[in-house]
Amino acid sequence: MKNPFTNILNTRGKRNSAVVALTVVLAVAILGTLVSRNVPKTSDEPGNTPPDMAALRGEYFDFAIKHRLDYIPFFEEGKAPTDSTEYLFWAFAVNLDNWGEDKGTMTRVYVDTAIHDHFEVGEIAHASMWKGWDYDGEKYVAVPGSISDKPVYALREYSADVIDKRTVYTITLAQCAYTTYPPSVEDMANYRTAIVSGDLSKLSVTRTETFRFYLNEETGEPVFLSHTLSPAQAFFENTGSSQPLTEGISSREKYYDYFAGHSRQVNPLFAIPNEEENALNANLMIFAFRNLEAADFQKGSTREEIDDILNKYFGRTVGEYITPYSEGLENGNVAPTAWSFHGCNRLVLTRLSAEDNGSFTGVFDVYEIPEGEENLAAIDKALREGDTGRYQSYFSQSATINWYEIEDESEPQGFYMRYNYIIPGKAQDWGISKGMSEGQVPLTPFLRLMRFVLTFG
To answer: What superkingdom heads the lineage (predicted)?
Structure first.
């Protein structure tokens, strides 16, 4: 079949050729105006000059925060998940500033509409989410917990292609860990400035992700076609020191085994150092009680025992032994108040660096495994081998940890970690004593949010 444009050009002469060409140019210009309403502007179209990558880095830094790319589920094109639980935290986070008195509550209609407006997906199966949201058939109510702070993404690759008469954008972004936790407004501004300039030297890249999307012509909102994790990168970046090795296993397996065997050291994860000294004291006391081998919850532990365990793992002790999670006893010892933990964390190494001072810095993906999970052995086997795709629903955050390895023959692997700093992506929660008043609780980022959710939920 002949191209209609060929017939026109062959029969109408040069004047009509010019008219057709002008019409095509105008159509392309109008299309470009329509699809650029909610995406960083660029001249990266066929035949044009390359885009301004510095400008795009800044614009996609903002784009990632506005659309909470950190909460978008992973899926291949044409395979967007149909379970509501995959989207609930995303739906909550993208509207965080607009909930008003409905903070902590989302209607089924809102969730369904938000999903269908931003993903090509069929009917959604609505259900409650463990440790996240209770669902009664009409609305979702938040279970007290935390959400991640605003994400830090750095644009690495960008392309725009016209497919089926619409522009499809493909962006590859590096998700970066905070250098301090929680990040301040000034910190976020500094991250943006560094990323725009292309300088990631002071940021730790936790993972590289690729998004494909187009813009809804009526709303200008992105409709996501896929979100994939880029192929695994090298775990180790040589910085001049030797890589820690355990004969016969990879670094990922080595550290997976360590944290699985020392799960109480990372459940919950907490930031250290922390400018909120009261919160840090409380977290360190929890760590001490959970890791003292001979802890007596009735008679308590001596201050010397607490000092010893904290100095062993952190090279420091607490500034105050009495916290909302610890109390003094008449015998002079310190005992924990009533609190509990549920489930466990599993840490999967994604990047490892050896530092000049002999320490190591690792970036870990953290998976929260529910209490009572019957397939824990199978999950452990898969995560240890790097087969994380089936368990993305358990992915919680990325954390950056710096440590020294201290030789100890009594340890199964011949060493233990002494932590210099831990920077989690978000605070983690734990059970709180029923008899404790809000005023007694140190307001960590999680507890601030929990109070906010409980107030409005």
So the answer is: Bacteria
